[in-house]
Specification:
It is a single chain. The chain has a five-stranded mixed beta sheet with strand order 10-9-11-8-12, with helices on both faces. The chain has a three-stranded parallel beta sheet with strand order 5-1-6. Strands 2-3-4 form a three-stranded antiparallel beta sheet, with helices on one face. With 270 residues, the protein is of the alpha/beta class. It has nine helices and 13 strands. The chain has helices at 2-31, 73-85, 99-104, 119-122, 164-172, 186-194, 205-215, 240-256, 258-265; strands at 49-54, 57-58, 62-64, 70-71, 88-93, 110-111, 125-127, 136-140, 156-160, 179-183, 200-204, 218-221, 233-235.
Length: 270
Amino acid sequence: MKQNKWGLAFLLGIVLIVLSACGAGSASDGESGDASGNSEGNGEDEKQVIELATSADYPPFESINEEGDIVGFDIDLANAIADELGYELKISDMNFDGLIGALQSGRADMVMAGMSATEKRSENVNFSTSYHSSGEMFVTNPDSDITSIEDLDGTTVGVQLGTIQEEGAENLQEDYDFEIQAMDKATNIIQELKTGRIDVGYLDKTVAEGYIEEQNLAGFDDPTEAAPGMAIAFPKDGDEEFYNEVNSLVEQFLEDGTVEELEKKWELNK
């Protein structure tokens, strides 16, 4: 009997070793996948992710709706790009002046935030073909006596940090005597304007027109600047194939009417 017990224990040990080896092989097979991250062993394809960075305080290009979702013209265009390429879009909201840093540190694959493709920014990022152009506008309170660029002397002008408007305001200081107050968000400019802590806000024209209508404000165009168009920003030394894919789609969407339809949806061409 003792021999039979030892023989049975030996056989059970062998069976357990074989079963364990089979289990390890199955797990390994299930984790295998191609270089793009698509899993093949479990029968479910996992989409590659586009990490999009934006600054969601710039309606109608990007803002946060009542449900807490980031929406806008740029977001719709980014979703159209991701859908066409078969990617999943993941959006990160941050201050505008941190967007280029997010690209440089690898925390984002691309930026869409109403960003103008200036020569200065092009030193640090690559830009796609421009997909929209608005121009700039000064925003004032409705009872303000500031009605033209000549009235800026002695005023305080609010701009958003890191924007082309901040750069444009600095250029205008060469000809006009005003103080610049830079802020993290466009919404802060409007709040400061309405409470009288600044005299003028300087914004993208489409954004400014939205605030003027929404907040019962006034304003006038900047006649001095022909701003470069808005474009998607990419890391300077990023994935060239990905850049070419996205840029080709931007050009396709400009030609086939996709961009125009989105501009109409978000009332960019009033």
